[in-house]
Amino acid sequence: MTSTFHLGLSKDFSLILDDADDYNVIIQVGEDLNTKEFRAHSAILRARSPYFKNALSTNWIKWKNNMIMLNKPNLAPTVFDMILKYIYTGELNLTNQSGEDIFKLLIASDELSLEELFEHIQEYLIEKKANWIHENFILVFNTAINLNNCKKLQNYCLESICENPLPFLSSKIFPSLDKEVLFCLVKRDDLQIKEVVIWDYLIKWGIEQTPDLRSKNYDMTEWTSKDYQALRNTLEQFIPFVRFVEISRADFFDKVRPYKAIIPNHIYEEIEEFNYKDVLPKTITLLPRAGSTTKKGKFLSRIIKQNHLKIIVNWIDKKDTTYTHNKKDLGYEFVLNYRGSRDRISNKSFRDKCKGRVASLVLVKIKNTSKIFGGYSSIGFSSLGDDYIIKHGYRFYKSTENFIFSFEHEEDTQNMKISRIINKYEAIMDHGGNGFNFGRGSLSMNDRFLHANNSSKNYENNLNTGTIYTIEEIETFTIDR
């Protein structure tokens, strides 16, 4: 049996990095006033990094006073300090690092061919710095797309775009978006936006990518057959992936028909026959995009799974949790309206996204546990109109259908709990100090904290934990029967 003593090894190498006087490499990083010199050992650098193995083995390295001199002005000192510690000790602590520095570390680890570090930082950004990613989304996405091995971050960005495409499609970078990136988006089944909107933006992108058309300022009266052919060539690979059967007859007439010349004849004829005769296409076999609805076959929650959703639907229908629906779908459409990691976890963000008197579901994943809480409100959460009463100095709304619930973990279908409304007159408290509030504190959100305290007795007492939890993720869905 082989014994390992990695802890001692790591400590000893840390001493070499900090105190040794036998270094033979000086690396100057940064530029202008933000520069710093680091001392290192060529043997260790070569062993740990393919980049340094190559850079330190070439004839063009510079020597000064028997020292190898390297200059990396594109790397910040704070970032290179973390890289050297990782190279020497295999240790990395990102807890107190800013999202910006961690992102710079990702780029640097790619340049220096530190694959293990590169993979770890992608995962760390996604799991721990999701809010920062979304605040700097264009920068992150552009960078991830241009890093060949950055698949995890690329996929995360693509999924985020699919969940809320409009801000990205309407951004300044969209007209110059790389063709393969846009193709990846158009092909996806989970792009949550109306098909006619996808078509509109695809046409705009195609025109911007076709120089002769861009110069004509979108004025189709000036287009020639050559112009249409140029646009057809630009969009050729995209057209088969547009779900034309999802575009209404009116939008087909107004927005698709004018571009008949860019659509292959067999596709256009089938769409036309579908719109005018209700004849299903024979060669166009793409299914409607899943969107975020159960009617379309996919429920896009990162918190619960389909089995949980079936249980919740049974609770909404006041049936036993094991009831099986005869229909192919569950009879409801659940549309993602708010996600904390995308839209920020705060009272204001929640209330801005979840306004109006519409049946809604909220799901909450608790940090550092596997526990999941949630609530169904037949009337929504905030801005619910004038049909309220004032009690205890707060505004309350009535519902006989509301309930709150919990699951022990994402696989739990046995130990879940449900608490239905008891006092229908205080089903929802609409108060700016909360994102949502079921029954004056039975289950309520206060920025990043969830309170489960049924002291008001407005709901059944099954969920009363008397605990304040930290929210890791939160989602809301509007519900339509």
TrEMBL record:
Give the PANTHER family listed for this entry. BTB/POZ DOMAIN-CONTAINING PROTEIN 9, BTB_POZ DOMAIN-CONTAINING PROTEIN 9
Q: Which Pfam families match?
A: BACK, BTB, TLD
* Listed GO CC annotations: cytoplasm
Q: Domain (BTB): give its ranges.
A: 23-96
Name of the protein described by the UniProt record: BTB domain-containing protein
- Which source organism does the UniProt entry give? Rhizophagus clarus
Q: Which Gene3D superfamilies match?
A: 1.25.40.420, Potassium Channel Kv1.1, Chain A
Q: Which residues form the TLDc domain?
A: 302-480
